[in-house]
Amino acid sequence: MTIRLQRIYDLAREFQDENQDDAWEELFDYLHRTGFRDCYSNENELFSHFSTYMRKYGMYRKTGLDDEKLREVLVSGRDTYLEFLCTYNDENLTISWINSYNLLSQLEVSTSPVMITKLLMGFGGKTPAYDQRFLNTITSNPTFLMHGINYLVEILKESQFEELKTHGDENAIPWERVLDMAFWQGSKYKEFLIEI
User: Fold this and answer.
1) What are the sequence ranges of the domains in the chain?
2) What confidence tens digit (pLDDT) does each residue in 139-183 have?
3) What angle do CA 119, 124, 129 make, to 5 degrees?
4) CB 176 within 8 Å of CB 117
5) What is the tens place of the pLDDT at every residue in 63-77?
């Protein structure tokens, strides 16, 4: 198991070193540097960071999401997202998921697990994005099917790996985001799907 976990960690580090699209890390650094609640006092800057992130991750393409609708989601969901950021647990994750789905649906945005998890990952990195690479990994690997993502996250947290840092080197990247990085990088290698 240690070798397999090391492989996940190494792939995440490799992704971080190679990735030129640092929109998520800029948003993450901004949220943590400014403070979650203070971010909402400067709505325009929060929106600017978030719109850059969502656009670079492809969430503006073929979904109906645009600047005006994203701003409404951020403002309307303020209390829910602050609670999600300050107290991360299954209950608040579920509430945030439902709230995000309802807000996006009301705005006639094409909602999907990918859209919602990208949005929630933007806030805190506390959930992997349920994109095709994520699904390919978990459905091809008995470890994930048997134990689930939370099981692996807890093992990673308890392992003796140094924490990944953002490019700004200000904040430790949450382990859920580390997994997301590894899925993205590792899905390029067929052996990764059966190795972990």
Assistant:
1) 2-20+129-195, 23-124
2) 777 777 777 777 888 888 888 888 888 887 778 999 889 888 888
3) 45
4) no
5) 999 999 999 999 999
